[in-house]
Design a protein that fits this description.
The chain is α/β, with parallel strands linked by helices. It contains 16 helices and 17 strands. Strand 13, helix 12 (313-322) and strand 14 (329-333) form a beta-alpha-beta unit. Helix 2 (41-51) packs parallel to helix 3 (67-76), helix 6 runs parallel beside helix 7 and helix 11 crosses helix 16.
Length: 423
């Protein structure tokens, strides 16, 4: 009825990470909820009594007043005792679960948090509808020495782009990076004028939060629209768009010299420092499992031949198991020497290649493929704690890379992403 006031649901977020709290509060506010922040257990308990929230989202480990004490106060307060609670935590052991059991917790999420899963739960608990951008998109961000790598595949999704500033800030804090160079890699992406707003949001996030000058930001893509957009937009003057990974890395590494002890530039670059803490936000969403991978795999047919070259039997079996849901032919090799002996006999469509192996390592395999004229798409497996990683392989034209430990759900996605651009 006209003039009838719409009641806005109120959510109390209690978390001691300002970054996590600010992101979640902004996201929920954007979805038309009223959000109250509690900076610790005591502050959260006071605001719970005063604000009477419809939903409480809280970390399981709080100071000044423990989460159990806050939950006990809720249980004893008839004004909020029936209101749902969602726990978000970096760790939950059996003892903590036993402590939480009497308080009728509706859901427990582990950090790094998949935001879409949390928002879906919020919608269900409060009986509200929350709209999310369903555009297919994968965004990953990781940090090595002076370079922030941002990988984007399939398309652009505004909900994930809005998460990126917080993810960049989190990575810079974890690795204590004073300044940066940024490489934005877009693969299997086809954009148009309708995506201009998302491109702008993406580049603004990189510029405003990446602590990098435009000249130190490179975009790797084959999509012509992105190059046109950057060229015509004054705000992004100085950002270079290129279609080869090698030229992008050469530009970012220009002026870097070998350090003491003869450590090479590419080798030093990927010697990743250890983070000072754990990540709270996940760039991946729960619904990433529903991205159009199955359709892409179906389009590729049943005649795809995969080679897996890794001395780790667990990795070889993992890849075989993942691709067992397809009719593809998977050949496995314990080292590069075995693979090289087979490369002229088998018509491979895609290779998964470990870099560190006995007898013949991944770099020697890449050198052999280059020398003999084999232009196979290669996805390298890399462990960031090792010096010899992806950048050293750039000159060999690798298609992509995956960071160990390997996540099974990513194997099919990565294969579909690379193969769809080569078939």
């Amino acid at each position: 009825m006209p003039g009838l006031e719409v009641l806005v649901k109120k959510i109390l977020v209690i978390d001691e990470s300002p970054l996590f709290r600010e992101y979640l509060s902004k996201k929920l506010a954007d979805k038309k909820f009223e959000v109250v922040q509690g900076v610790n257990g005591l502050d959260g308990a006071i605001k719970m009594r005063r604000e009477l929230p419809d939903l409480i989202i809280m970390d399981s480990y709080l100071t000044r007043k423990s989460s159990i004490e806050v939950l006990q106060e809720r249980k004893e307060n008839p004004n909020v005792s029936s209101h749902p609670v969602v726990i978000v935590s970096s760790k939950i052991d059996k003892e903590k679960l036993v402590e939480l059991k009497p308080f009728n917790i509706r859901k427990i999420f582990m950090k790094p948090l998949k935001v879409d899963a949390l928002l879906k739960t919020v919608a269900e608990l409060l009986g509200e509808k929350i709209e999310m951008d369903d555009s297919p998109c994968i965004i990953e961000a990781h940090f090595n020495d002076e370079i922030l790598f941002i990988e984007i595949a399939l398309g652009l999704n505004i909900d994930k782009i809005e998460l990126l500033p917080y993810k960049i800030t989190e990575l810079l804090e974890l690795y204590q990076a004073p300044s940066l160079k940024v490489l934005v890699m877009l693969s299997n992406v086809s954009l148009s004028e309708t995506d201009a707003g998302k491109i702008r949001a993406l580049l603004r996030a990189v510029l405003d939060y990446g602590k990098a000058q435009p000249k130190n930001i490179k975009i790797l893509t084959n999509d012509p629209y992105i190059k046109q957009y950057v060229a015509r937009t004054p705000d992004f003057a100085g950002i270079e768009v290129t279609n080869t990974l090698e030229s992008a890395m050469d530009a970012l590494l220009a002026g870097k010299s070998e350090g003491a002890g003869g450590v090479g530039t590419h080798e030093k670059l990927l010697r990743s420092a250890s983070p000072r803490g754990t990540e709270a936000l996940d760039m991946r969403f729960e619904d990433d499992r529903r991205l159009p991978v199955e359709k892409t795999l179906e389009q590729l047919g049943n005649d795809v031949v995969i080679g897996v070259v890794d001395d780790d039997e667990v990795i070889r079996e993992l890849v075989k198991t993942v691709f067992s849901q397809t009719a593809w032919n998977v050949h496995t090799y314990e080292n590069g020497k075995q693979f090289v002996a087979d490369v002229d006999k088998v018509q491979f469509d895609l290779i998964f290649l470990d870099l560190m192996m006995p007898e013949m390592d991944g770099f020697q395999v890449l050198e052999h493929l280059k020398r003999t004229g084999h232009s196979l798409p290669v996805i390298i497996f890399s462990a960031l704690t090792r010096k010899e990683t992806v950048v050293k392989a750039v000159g060999y034209g690798v298609s992509s890379y995956m960071i160990k430990p390997i996540r099974p759900e990513r194997l099919l996605m990565k294969a579909a992403e690379i193969l769809s651009t080569n078939f």
